[in-house]
């Protein structure tokens, strides 16, 4: 394992550097070197913080969201984001509150508006009990939500932080729940693709010959298949069988894995071909080490850094692929949702013009993809042996 030696000057008891004192050297492991380099990449750190924030929001989505993701408020279709007031009528500061709104048709312009009823204030309260029940971490049953709007007499008002969709469902709640699919698809595809790519690519590169020829021809066949049309066909087939949303989601994961392992196997093959001819591998064979020990002890550790970088850069690509499929209607199905499925409502230019808040799920996609790319760049620079100083 690579080591980095840092010269350390000797200090006396009061902390003053002693000139001419013998120098000490501190050994740093490869992991410490990588972590130190990663911390110096500020944009990568920002991306990592954003990803962690999204993960926390996804884990506690049902607690943070004020409503159930399938709850429909038919009297509020395409309701704009609720206005949160911080001042009273006289201009003095107040606890945050909202007013109830009522759907009204303007007979002059024939446009639907939602004027506020200012007769009653509904203050924003935290840790309130709501109608939507859920299981925290899938274990603890609860109906406590992070916030809600309540008047002094206990009556409630609807709060749509990001507006509502065509069926009156809270877009903020659906964005939080949609993160379950959008954030999970990348890691799950990697868990399926990496084992296949590592095993087949490793066998191809280590043994060569007929094994290499057979595996590489199979990889070329997979790479020649157009990915998006096949994924669309498989998505349509899964939806046609009337399967549950969870089954369709797992089918999408398998489809993405089947169409994505070829490129991974070819890259792993190239890595193994280069490493197997190095001196330390030749020495291990000369010392009598078997193939399994050579692969596990000497080759796999030298491929790990590439796998980590590839994982961080593959996740955003899988997220965009899932978003594309769901946007086109071949991905996740109701009542479950994802950020791409939520963007399906933005296919009509008129809807975008009248209800621009339906584009908000696209902002979540852009931010999360950029965050993963920033983190991937930081990881790539950190594991590069030539960039560590």
What's the short story on this structure?
By secondary structure, this protein is of the alpha+beta class.
Note the topology:
Layout: E1 4-8, E2 24-28, H1 30-39, H2 42-59, H3 61-64, E3 85-87, E4 93-101, E5 104-105, E6 112-113, E7 116-136, E8 140-150, E9 156-157, H4 171-207, H5 209-224, H6 227-240, H7 245-275, H8 279-286, H9 291-328, H10 339-342, H11 349-354, H12 360-383
Antiparallel strand pairs: 1-2, 3-4, 4-7, 5-6, 7-8, 8-9
Structure description:
- Helix 1 (30-39) packs across helix 12 (360-383), helix 2 packs across helix 12 (360-383) and helix 9 runs antiparallel to helix 12.
- The protein folds into three domains: 1-29, no CATH class; 82-159, no CATH class; 173-383, MetI-like fold (Orthogonal Bundle).
- The strands form three sheets. A five-stranded antiparallel beta sheet has the order 3-4-7-8-9.
- Mean pLDDT is 82; it is low at 1-18.
- The chain is α+β, with helices and mostly antiparallel strands.
- The chain has twelve helices and nine strands.
> What coarse outline follows from CA principal-axis ratios?
elongated
Distance between the termini: 16 Å
Determine the fraction of residues in helical runs and give it as a percent range.
40-55%
Q: Tell me the count of domains.
A: 3
Structural class: alpha+beta
Largest sheet: 5 strands, antiparallel
Number of strands: 9
Number of helices, where a helix is a run of at least 4 consecutive DSSP H or I residues: 12
């Amino acid at each position: 394992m690579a080591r980095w030696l840092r010269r350390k000057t000797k200090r006396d008891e009061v902390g003053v550097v002693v000139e001419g004192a013998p120098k000490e050297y501190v050994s740093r492991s490869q992991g410490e070197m990588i972590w130190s380099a990663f911390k110096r990449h500020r944009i990568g750190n920002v991306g990592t913080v954003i990803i962690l924030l999204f993960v926390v929001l996804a884990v506690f989505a049902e607690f943070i969201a004020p409503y159930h993701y399938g709850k429909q408020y038919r009297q509020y279709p395409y309701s704009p984001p609720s206005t949160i007031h911080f001042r009273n009528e006289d201009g003095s500061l107040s606890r945050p509150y909202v007013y109830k709104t009522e759907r009204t048709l303007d007979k002059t312009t024939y446009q639907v508006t939602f004027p506020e009823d200012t007769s009653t204030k509904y203050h924003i309260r935290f840790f309130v009990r709501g109608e939507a029940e859920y299981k925290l971490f899938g274990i603890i049953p609860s109906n406590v939500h992070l916030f809600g709007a309540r008047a002094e007499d206990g009556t409630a008002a609807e709060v749509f932080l990001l507006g509502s969709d065509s069926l009156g469902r809270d877009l903020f709640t659906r964005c939080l729940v949609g993160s379950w699919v959008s954030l999970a698809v990348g890691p799950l595809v990697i868990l399926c693709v990496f084992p296949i790519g590592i095993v087949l690519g490793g066998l191809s590169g280590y043994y060569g010959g007929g094994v290499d020829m057979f595996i590489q021809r199979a990889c070329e066949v997979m790479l020649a298949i157009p990915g998006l049309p096949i994924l669309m066909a498989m998505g349509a087939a899964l939806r046609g069988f009337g399967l549950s949303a969870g089954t369709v989601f797992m089918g999408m994961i398998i489809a993405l894995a089947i169409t994505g392992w070829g490129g991974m196997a070819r890259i792993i093959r190239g890595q193994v071909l280069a490493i197997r001819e190095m001196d330390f591998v030749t020495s291990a064979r000369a010392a009598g080490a078997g193939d399994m020990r050579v692969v596990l002890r000497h080759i796999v550790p030298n491929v790990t850094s590439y796998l980590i970088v590839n994982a961080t850069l593959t996740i955003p690509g899988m997220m965009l692929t899932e978003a594309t499929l769901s946007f086109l209607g071949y991905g996740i199905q109701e009542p479950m949702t994802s950020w791409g499925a939520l963007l399906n409502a933005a296919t009509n230019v008129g809807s975008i013009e009248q209800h621009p808040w339906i584009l908000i799920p696209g902002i979540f996609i852009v931010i999360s993809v950029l965050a993963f790319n920033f983190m991937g760049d930081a990881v790539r620079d950190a594991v590069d042996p030539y960039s560590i100083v």
